[in-house]
Amino acid sequence: MKAVVNSVQEKPAPLMISCGTGMPFDIRFGPRADRFLQSADNYVFDRISEKIRALSLNPQPRGVKKVIGEEGVYRIRVGNFRILYSVESGENVLLIVNIDKRSRV
Questions:
Q1: Where are the domains of the chain?
Q2: N or C: which end of the chain has fewer CB within 10 A?
Q3: Which of 40, 7, 4 shows the shortest CA–CA distance to 17?
């Protein structure tokens, strides 16, 4: 029988996600994405943080789709969630516009 441990871990502030050094794209968060990450549980936070780190290295991975009706905005699925983001190549910035459940994005 597995024991479930409820440990309260403090999440780092979303704007402070450590992504290593020498990455090609800086990560910035819009207000909606920031709000979502502040309220996400640790498991969801970790999964989404990993995907965002991967996006900073390769902003056009397999499975990414362009958002219809939005100029330069892409989406990628992470489980039951979607990350909406835009790439500002001239400034070398990956802007995370929104993160939410698939049904709400």
A1: 24-104
A2: N
A3: 40
Please report, for residues 2, 27, 52, 72, 77, the alpha-carbon distance to residue 48 in angstroms, rounded to integers and kept in the order given: 26, 13, 6, 21, 10
What's the CATH architecture for 24-104?
Answer: 2-Layer Sandwich (3.30)
Q: What is the DSSP letter of 79?
A: T
Paired tokens of 62: 């397999």
pTM above 0.90, yes or no: no
Sign of torsion over alpha carbons 37, 92, 75, 71: positive
* DSSP, res 40: S
Residue 85: predicted pLDDT: 97
Question: Which one-letter amino acid corresponds to residue 91?
Answer: E
